[in-house]
Amino acid sequence: MWSLRVSVSALMFLVIASLILHLLVLRQFKTRPEHLRPENLTILLWHWPFGVAYSLKGNFCWEKFGIPGCFLEDNRSMFSQAEVVVFHHHELWTGRSKLPLDLRRPLKQRWLWLSLEPPMKNGNLSAFNSFFNWTMSYRRDADIFMPYGKLVPKKNRSKSFVVPKKTKCLVAWVVSNYKEQYRRSKVFQQLKDFIPEDQIEVYGQWKKRPISNKALLKTISQCFFYLAFENSECTDYISEKLWRNALQAGSVPVVLGPSRANYEAMVRSDAFIHVDDFRSVRELAAFLKYVASHNQTYGSYFRWHESHEVKIYTDWRERLCTICSQYHKLPVRRVYKDLYSWVNQ
């Protein structure tokens, strides 16, 4: 009788242990599907964005960002060994590069479509349907979200931020691609009706007044506001105009682009002024003058500096390394059968 009880207990133990093991296996496959991450990942960049190449010597992802087992390549002979092949869209649609459709694509290899441009600059996408598994974009719903910048927790909170002295102008703007039909151009022209000309500084190719990257931040920091006006008003498209030209420079951004709610998903609500908050450009101009003349009100736009700082993404290698850090979370069977619809939604 005693041995029978022992046998029953042992059997129950084995059944329970088996169930627990089964659940653990299911959980693992739910979060890390059948393609379980390889020990090392090779990311092949098929062509460098805009033809500007960077050095890939050494283990860049590990040395710069602490991402292990991630190897970047731009040598096309590595095609058959790459887990991911990255194609920057600009070179594809301009015809400077082509998809390697003549090569035998490994079964587990994934192709990634990369573009940080708004839809209006992506041209005809129909030729690229059903080729790509993943997307990397400024869009938050991309497989790999890659913004132009973001606010990150401040590393040294003991170091206080000092608002730069404003000795140059009320409003600054850097613009090269100026077209009268753009909404940003129309808003700017109206602002000129309500703000004295000597309080507006415009730089860039449009005014044949170029400004170097070295001088950019220092120059803008001397103005109260920076016009972070996007040339395309589409979901999530918030470029370096906000992150670098305004926030990093130490000027309050006046933004024109996606909705206020869209901006607030990326940056604190008290860090910027949105054009759409005002019934007219006249009201906007009056508000800018008011804020600039009240130190406490103006200073409130810099409170985010107490806890955060700006991180800018400029190095394409850093963007590529991000693929490795997110690889195990990416969908296995995804294929973009209608890339145009996704890009333009």
TrEMBL record:
Residues 40-149 form the Fucosyltransferase N-terminal domain. Residues 164-342 form the Fucosyltransferase C-terminal domain. GO terms for molecular function: alpha-(1->3)-fucosyltransferase activity. It is found in: Golgi apparatus, Golgi stack membrane; Membrane. Pathway: Protein modification; protein glycosylation. It is an enzyme of class 2 (transferase). It catalyses: an N-acetyl-alpha-neuraminyl-(2->3)-beta-D-galactosyl-(1->4)-N-acetyl-beta-D-glucosaminyl derivative + GDP-beta-L-fucose = an alpha-Neu5Ac-(2->3)-beta-D-Gal-(1->4)-[alpha-L-Fuc-(1->3)]-beta-D-GlcNAc derivative + GDP + H(+). Its EC number is 2.4.1.-. The chain crosses the membrane at residues 6-26. GO terms for cellular component: Golgi cisterna membrane. Its main location: Golgi. Keywords: Glycoprotein, Glycosyltransferase, Golgi apparatus, Membrane, Signal-anchor, Transferase, Transmembrane, Transmembrane helix. It is a single-pass type II membrane protein; Single-pass membrane protein. Gene3D superfamilies: Glycosyl transferase family 10, C-terminal domain. It comes from the Eukaryota. Signal peptide: none annotated. Belongs to the glycosyltransferase 10 family. This is Fucosyltransferase. It comes from Astyanax mexicanus (Blind cave fish).
